[in-house]
């Protein structure tokens, strides 16, 4: 392609201005087309928008499958996703076509860890129930056991997946007076020493933890990992928290475990599907707190994610090193 020719770039959503400014400055190199909305691009518009594109900037909610890649055609050389996760991308097909992929790890670690701790505390201390009681007139006189929950002081916390985010969660939980920090995963992590983490088998973690926090990647091994058998090994007083991926949990089994008193409560920032239907059984339970996948939702974090995804895209178009490239 000659220097005079511009490369077509399709952006599937209006992204934070930090990223848009970078893309707009590259107007001499890029013919920029943006689905200018806060809502997801309709499938037909995605297929039309990506036609002939050299670069694609997408979100976790955009399914980039063979149909989209075929619609793009042979020009497509880089896909930049404004996310850490990439299970919305047809990775095998993308690799086969020699398309490079940029993503945004690391930058949302702190925000997601903070949200996970907030979700754990809100679930364990029954904050949503308390707010509702204030609003509906349920708050009357002081009662010894009314709205009692579970505290972190002296507790055992189990983290499934002590990667970047899992470790950041553990760092934030330790100062609450956690007595033991257990973790499990493919192998022991040297950095676990920082939080005095004990590497244990999954069964041990489940049977001994007062709080079970899922922070692992979605893989064939972790798909529906948290099922009936999983919950049956937990304490009846245990709190379950998931801020990783919704598909790690069998939600029917979780509903049964919560409804039967097999476990005390659950807090979820991720579900299957997303958004969760308003008539979903989990939403009928007082002991289940569900958030709308807002782990990275701070202004700063989303701005940095947009900036990184824009720079990844431009680097890919220039055939230069990306700030953060997914190794296929």
From TrEMBL:
Any one GO CC term of the record: cytosol
Residues annotated as domain D-isomer specific 2-hydroxyacid dehydrogenase NAD-binding: 117-295
Entries under Pfam families matching the protein: 2-Hacid_dh, 2-Hacid_dh_C
Stretches assigned to the D-isomer specific 2-hydroxyacid dehydrogenase catalytic domain: 9-325
InterPro entries: D-isomer_2-hydroxyacid_DH, D-isomer_2_OHA_DH_cat_dom, D-isomer_DH_CS, D-isomer_DH_NAD-bd, NAD(P)-bd_dom_sf
Molecular function GO labels: glyoxylate reductase (NADPH) activity; hydroxypyruvate reductase (NADH) activity; NAD binding
Keywords, alphabetical: Oxidoreductase, Pyruvate
Database matches in SUPFAM superfamilies: Formate/glycerate dehydrogenase catalytic domain-like (SSF52283), NAD(P)-binding Rossmann-fold domains (SSF51735)
Cited PANTHER family: 2-HYDROXYACID DEHYDROGENASE-RELATED (PTHR10996), GLYOXYLATE REDUCTASE_HYDROXYPYRUVATE REDUCTASE (PTHR10996:SF137)
Family note: Belongs to the D-isomer specific 2-hydroxyacid dehydrogenase family.
Name this polypeptide is given: Glyoxylate reductase/hydroxypyruvate reductase
Species whose genome carries this gene: Triplophysa tibetana
